[in-house]
Specification:
The complex is a heterodimer of chains A (105) and B (289). Chain A is α/β, with parallel strands linked by helices. Chain A has helices spanning 50-60, 73-81, 96-104, and strands spanning 2-7, 25-30, 36-40, 65-68, 85-88. Chain A has a single domain, classed as Nucleotidyltransferase, domain 5 (2-Layer Sandwich), CATH 3.30.420.130. Chain A has 3 helices and 5 strands, in the order βββαβαβα. In chain A, helix 1 (50-60) packs parallel to helix 2. Chain B has 289 residues and is of the alpha/beta class. Chain B has 2 domains: 3-62 and 130-288, Rossmann fold (3-Layer(aba) Sandwich), CATH 3.40.50; 71-118, Alpha-Beta Plaits (2-Layer Sandwich). Chain B has helices at residues 16-30, 79-83, 110-114, 153-164, 181-187, 201-216, 234-242, 254-261, 266-269, 274-288; strands at residues 3-8, 35-39, 55-69, 89-92, 97-100, 120-136, 139-146, 170-174, 192-197, 221-228, 246-251. Chain B has a 9-stranded mixed sheet, sandwiched between helices. A two-stranded antiparallel sheet of chain B has the order 4-5. In chain B, helix 1 (16-30) packs across helix 10 and helix 4 packs parallel to helix 5 (181-187). Classes of the chains: A alpha/beta (105), B alpha/beta (289). Chain A binds chain B through residues 43, 46-50, 52-53, 55-56, 59-60, 62, 74, 78, 81-82, and chain B through 81, 86-88, 90-95, 97, 99, 101, 103-104.
Chain lengths: 105, 289
């Protein structure tokens, strides 16, 4: 299964990004082989509709679960329709690696 | 004659509506001309409150065009979503998924041009209503009222302006606060703008922003100072330095505020205020000639 973790940078020691639609990067973590891939969020500076664009991008990647700090209403609505599970993490500023470690355990 | 006066401000709560309703009312009483007051503050129109004896003449629903996708014809190529500047269309080819986010749509029509398969159908979505009231024989009040949650303020203001166009000798537009699109749309074709401000640092700061807008689009204006006596002298220093005309000053008075809060026109309640508006009216009439 592919899981996306919203990230502020493109490395595992980058801080987790609290925002979904306007996150800097998306870390795609593959639970089967443990690999990670970082994809830049090209829509983070859009005037409006960043959330729907992000949801579109996530669904097109075949991701089943997204871990972020906050999902906007439009993104949430669209992710629900696309059957992508949303996980809200309340922890303050963990690194992407720390989030992955939590998934593994 | 079709003279357009717009009452605007940078800061909210300086007295745009107070000035608009009182000015329009006074103009209709003192001039033998058709006067129209247009409440363009479509997110919270409140000019009607001051005219309890109004009677409604007409209500018109306003629409915007939004796309709908014909699934039979759509190949999920995503061209429409690619053309959309406002992210109002989601297409995921792999999942054969499509959705229109009509709240984000600005009715620009790019998706109709983008679609190679004629799969986009035009649909109408309501954004609000225009209500036209008769106040006095020669005074009409027209307001736009945006649907709750709709982001189409500017489009509704534009439709409101088209609706009232050319209907009166003098039209007074009550602008929404701020200096963003809805304000710019309201002031954009005014013959003269009255900027209402208050002599406080906040009033001055936002006034400067509004003045920047008007200078940029080249619209003549003057400043009307409400709540004079409050705050400080920075506003006066600035107006002096920039040689900006002061159209009038209404001193701050608690009783004006409470009369306003009760929904009364200042003209009918407070003799002290009347001369300030009469002066303002005379200044404007001179501009007419």
């Amino acid at each position: 299964m592919k899981i996306i973790i919203t990230s502020t940078g493109n490395t595992l020691d980058a801080e987790f990004d609290q925002r979904f639609g306007r996150a800097g990067w998306y870390c795609v973590f593959n639970t089967e082989d443990g690999t990670t891939e970082f994809i830049e969020n090209e829509n983070k500076d859009r005037q409006g509709g960043a959330g729907t664009k992000a949801a579109e991008q996530v669904a097109a990647l075949g991701v089943e679960k997204v871990i972020s700090g906050h999902f906007g209403p439009k993104a949430e609505d669209l992710l629900n329709k696309l059957s992508v599970q949303m996980v809200i993490l309340h922890e303050q500023n963990p690194t992407v690696q720390e989030v992955i470690d939590q998934i593994k355990n | 004659m079709n003279f357009k006066i717009t009452v605007a401000s940078g800061k909210g709560g300086t007295g745009k509506t107070t000035v608009s309703v009182n000015l329009a009312y006074l103009l209709s009483k003192e001039l033998d001309l058709d006067i129209q007051l247009v409440d363009c503050d479509v997110e919270e129109p409140n000019s009607t409150i001051f005219f309890p004896k109004k009677c409604i003449k007409e209500t018109e629903t306003c629409f915007k065009q939004v796309p709908e996708i014909d699934i039979e014809k759509c190949t999920f190529c995503g061209k429409c979503a690619e053309y959309c500047e406002f992210s109002a269309i989601t297409i995921i080819q792999k999942l054969e998924f499509q959705e229109i986010h009509s709240d984000l749509c600005h009715s620009c029509g790019a998706c109709f041009i983008a679609c190679p398969n004629n799969a986009i159908i035009e649909k109408q979505k309501s954004i609000g209503v225009i209500q036209n009231y008769k106040i006095r024989e020669n005074l009409n009040l027209v307001e736009g009222r945006l649907e709750i949650g709709s982001p189409m303020q500017t489009m509704l203001i534009s439709q409101l302006k088209d609706y009232v166009d050319g209907d009166a000798h003098i039209t007074v537009f009550d602008s929404p606060p701020g200096t963003s699109c809805p304000m710019v749309e309201t002031v954009s074709d005014a013959d003269f703008v009255i900027l209402v401000t208050e002599p406080t640092p906040f009033g001055l700061y936002d006034l400067k922003l509004a003045i920047d807008v008007l200078k940029e689009i080249n619209i003549p204006f003057g400043v009307f100072i409400n709540k004079a006596g409050l705050g400080d002298t920075l506003l006066y220093d600035y107006l002096n330095q920039e040689k900006i005309a002061i159209l009038g000053e209404v001193p701050f008075d608690r009783s004006y505020a409470s009369k306003y809060a009760e929904g009364n026109l200042l003209d009918t309640t407070l003799e002290k205020v009347k001369p300030h508006y009469q002066n303002l009216m005379r200044t404007l009439i001179n501009k007419l000639d």
